[in-house]
Each structure stands twice: as structure tokens, then as C-alpha cells.
Amino acid sequence: MSVAESLSHLDAAAQRVAATTADALGVLAEDLSDRGRAARVADVEAQFARDTAIVHMRVGVAVDQRLRHLHGVVADLGRGARAVPWPESAPLPVEEDALAVAQYVRVGAADLGQFKFDASHTDALPVMIPLLNRANIVVKASGWNSEMANLVQALVARALCASGPGQLMLRVFDPALRSYLSLFSALREVDEALFPRPGAHGEDLEELLRTLTDDVRRVGDLGHGQEGSLGELRQSTGQPIEAYQLVVLLDYPRGVSEHAAQMLEHLLRVGPARGVSFVIHHGAELAHNKSAMAALRNVENSLMFDGTDWVWSAVNGLTIRVDRPSSGSLQATADLVAAAARRCSAPMIAFTQIQPPLEAWTARSGDGISAAIGLSGHKVMTVTLGDEREQRHNMLITGAVGQGKSNLLMVLIHSFASRYSPSELEL
Predict the structure, then answer these.
(1) Last residue of a domain, one of 343, 370, 404
(2) What's the average model confidence in pLDDT over 264-293?
(3) CA-to-CA distance for 74 and 227, rounded, in angstroms?
(4) Distance (Å, rounded) from C-alpha 99 to C-alpha 165?
(5) Within a domain: residue 397?
(6) What is the longest distance spanned by two Cα atoms in the chain?
(7) Across 199-336, where does the E strand assignment appear?
(8) Residue 415 belongs to domain spanning
């Protein structure tokens, strides 16, 4: 082989080695590139995991703080008997403060699963619904069964327990004569006014609504335009003025005439602030009329059963595990409420509140004699004898044993003696 041929073979071999080396270097470069990309992906995934953990922790802390705040709010609203769960068979605790009022009542506990970020949050949140002095409640469901009866009974029992003894009167319209609220009939034995016999006919409902309208007007007059609600008037005077009324209408709108619906619509709007609140069972399967349904249009506080869950209209999407107290616990609670009403006493008013000592012996008897006998809201109430216009010269005081006749006589004598000197009035 000549030198030229040998050089040619060497050159070809060198070219093959160079090509093979280039191929190897290309494969090596691709491999190194893939490894770099994988490393970078791994770094990004690790950073994402760290960021997700930080976000998860921060959201969890925020949820914890919010839940603690909500529990604190509920605890404040649910003092006393308002938020405690129902005992197995024992009664709920009963308020002793005459000024207490069930402005919020517990209906159950909230299902927070759809709102919780962390499944470790397992505490149930009591659901407190506004009622006396604040709102009305409409319970919407098809049909009437023991579960519906239990819910209405529990609402009434909660309202009675969380209000001062003898300070909440129960009014019931029961057109289907279900008598599920008869477990509170012991209140009637204490005082017929605490739980008059339920009405069942349309005319009974109209009479009830007319009476309630007069009551609302009278309570409004007591404030003389100064207080916005009965609760504020009570707090400002420190006295249990008037009584609250809880009106339960069952099987609505059965027995509701157009005139009754008009009166009801007005009462639903202005009643709560004047001491009259309603719990209305709306039977979705009952025949409707436009006026009866229009009366409910301003009630924003509704409990609705959709066939599976109970929901509260005030919070979209919130499902509620409604409390289901036993019959024994309900009856024991009703008996305890009646016992508390039986032993409660009339409010005490200091004599100096109606007859200031600095005004002693300053009155004149020429135009009659007047005595201060009590308070109506902030206003001192007086009775006058011997005036020229009214011509009232005598007084007859009647009443059952223990109703305060002797106390009234003592107040009259002390007020006359404080107002008039011996030269003006002889006793």
C-alpha cells in the first residue's frame, strides 16, 4: 500500500472517530441537559411544596382565629340557657333575672365541613337565631310530623327559659288542633294570661291580632318617642315594664283571611321592637293565597327543610343539625319554667322614685288631692280625688288575696302625707 493510500485510510478512520466522538458528545450534552432540567423541576416542586405549606399554615391560623371569634360571639349571645345543648332528660337552666329576654335562641349546631380549611377543626358551632325584641322566625317544611313538633316545642322552651320568670306570654293559633304546645299548660295554672287557650278558627286569629295591635300601640306610647324598643325601655328604667309575647301560628296560612294577613304583615314588621315576636310554621303543601304569602315577604329569618337538611336563610349554604330534645327534657323544662313563674314576685320600686323627699309639704289641696302610685315607663302615675272637673271623690280598691291592695293603700297614705302639710290635709 502506497503512502498516499495509507494516509487516505487514516484520514477516513479519523473522520469516523471524529463523527463517533461528536455523536457521543451530543448524547452526553442531551443527557446533561435532561439532568439539569429534572433538577430544576425538582427545585421548583420543592419550593411549591414549601409555599403551599406556608399558605396552608397561614389559612389554618386565620380559620382558627375566625372560629375562636365566632365561638366567642356565640358564647356572649348564648349566656345562660340560650346556647347550652339540651340535657338527656333534665331541664334547661332557667333565667332568674326579671329583665332577661331571649333575644337569641339556639336551634342546633352548624355543619362547618364546607367552610373548614383544616379537617382537624371538629368543634360544633351553636347556631343562635334572633327572636324576642329583634325578629320573627318562619319554619318552612312540607307536612307536619314529630320532628316539626319537636323543633317548635324546643324554640318555645328556649325562649321561655332565657326570659325572666313570668315575663313571656305564650299565644298560640292552632287551626288543626294539634295541641303539641299543651306541655306548657302549667303556665295557665300560674296565670291565665301567661298561656291563654289556643285559638282554632279564623275569627280567633283576627281577635288575637287586633289585641296584639293594641298592645304594640300601647308599648310604643310608653316610650314617648325616646326608646326604640321595649328592651331598651326596660333597661333604661331598670324595671320589667310590660311583658314580652311569643305568638306561635301553626299550619300557616290555614285560617288566615285577607284582613288577618294585613294585620299580620304590620305586626311582623313593628312587633318585635314592641315586645311581640312570631314563630310561624309554614306548611309548604297547604293552599296559599296571595295576601297570606305577602305577609311573610319581610321575614328574613327562616328555617327551611329541603327534604334532606335544615338550612338557615341568613347564611347561604349553611346546613344545621337541629337540636332534638327528648320529651322528658322538654316536659321537665316546661315544669321548671312554670315553677319559676309561680315564685316570682312583683318588681320593687323605691318610694323616693315616685315621691322625692325635697317636695314634702309643698302641694296645695284647693283643687283636689293627688297621690303618686307608681311608674309607667319613665312617667310617674298619679291618682287625683276631689277635683272640680273629674268629680272623683271616692275610691274603691278590689283584688284577690296577695295582689297588693294593702301595699297600694300604704303608698296612697304615704304619698298624701308627703305632699300635703297637716294644714292642707287631715288624715
Answers:
(1) 343
(2) 87
(3) 26
(4) 9
(5) yes
(6) 166
(7) 244-252, 276-283, 302-305, 310-312, 319-322
(8) 351-419
